[in-house]
Amino acid sequence: MTHDSDQTDEPLNWGAAFFGWILPGFGQISIGHARRGVLAGVGVLGLFFGGLLIGGVDCVDRHEDPLWFYAQAGAGPIALASDWANSALLKSGKVGDLVETPAAMPRATPAMVSSFKTVTPANEIGTLYCALAGLMNVVVIFDALKRRPVERSASAGRR
Predict the structure, then answer these.
(1) Structural domain that includes position 83
(2) Other beta carbons less than 10 A from residue 15's beta carbon
(3) Fewest beta carbons within 10 Å, which of 11, 95, 134, 149?
(4) What is the reported pLDDT for 8?
């Protein structure tokens, strides 16, 4: 089995990986692959916002669904902001009324949830979309981490 020593000896683009987590696709843009970065960013953000549109903001919840949230957090600060909106607005009762739910166990205290909480399969689909967006962004981050930066003289000649 042969290995390409040129590619394995190149340093990793840690800055591009960080920028790619902050804003999906920005890691590729920062190393000169603008078209790839824009397409990746549109794909990740479109999938994440599609999940929020389908399932509502309560489909991103680190307290009730921590394993799903780990995958969703790969999409970057947008997942953290969605979780904050869920906790600060919906679960606190600032938006919508808090209603009592039936207790799961016989002497358990009934939980209070927002009247805007979705309990349909749409919430599960939204959760899945947001998680897939996060996992897709992790792949995009790894691509930015290992991708060879475009040389400035070569990019000026292509314009």
Answers:
(1) 11-148
(2) 13
(3) 11
(4) 63
